[in-house]
Specification:
72 residues, mainly alpha, Erythroid Transcription Factor GATA-1, Chain A, 46% helix, 0% strand, rod-shaped, binds zinc ion, DNA_gyrase_inhibitor_YacG, DNA gyrase inhibitor YacG, zinc ion binding, metal-binding, DNA topoisomerase type II (double strand cut, ATP-hydrolyzing) inhibitor activity
Length: 72
């Protein structure tokens, strides 16, 4: 018998995050953890790509306080 794991045949993929065989219920990932890792990375990238690059402190102020506005 030379047939590999039937599960990996049916799914035919590897987890894009860690490269382990894909798990059916987490397709195309191997686990919830890898799913969320990839999602987080994807969100991070799509957040960074558009628009001008913000300085670190500027970006931090933005995410904490929203757009700068004068109070009073
Ligand atoms: Zn994985």
């Amino acid at each position: 018998m030379s047939s590999p794991d039937p599960v990996s045949i049916r799914i035919g993929g590897k987890c894009p995050t860690c490269g382990r065989p894909t798990e059916a219920r987490f397709r195309p990932f191997c686990s919830t953890r890898c799913q969320q890792l990839d999602l987080g990375r994807w969100l991070n990238e799509s957040y960074r790509v558009p628009g001008p690059v913000l300085e670190d402190d500027e970006a931090e102020a933005f995410s904490q306080n929203g757009p700068a506005r004068d109070s009073d």
